[in-house]
Amino acid sequence: MMSAPDLLEHARTAAAKAHAPYSKFQVGSALLTHSGRLFTGCNVENASYGLTVCAERNAIFHAVAEEGPGMKIATLAVIALGHEFPPCGACRQVIAEFAGAETTVWFLRDGRPMALTMAELLPCGFRI
Length: 128
What we know:
Shape: globular
Oligomer: single chain
Low-confidence stretches: none
Strand order of the largest sheet: 2-1-3-4-5
Order of helices and strands: HEEHEHEEH
Structural class: alpha+beta
């Protein structure tokens, strides 16, 4: 299993590739699937802001495109260059679609890696 610092570093590398001319928030995400594969993504903004794709969703969609709809997230990390925050609400819901309640999500808080489970990040996620 990849360490949290390694996963966060992959997320940081992805963040440097972000297209964020409007918000100036360069965000990157890295996830490890249960099959052991690493996928990264960055946010890609658009002048029609609703068309923007967050880094976490970009990484997840890439993983699904490669592994198929049965892809499951083992752990995920998100980094915003110059900022610290966990995934947004929309991303939390998408992560929950491909993760278990105990899946760990890493981000920075006060300059240190912090982990929360999906149950902690999204206690009442939408399910069908």
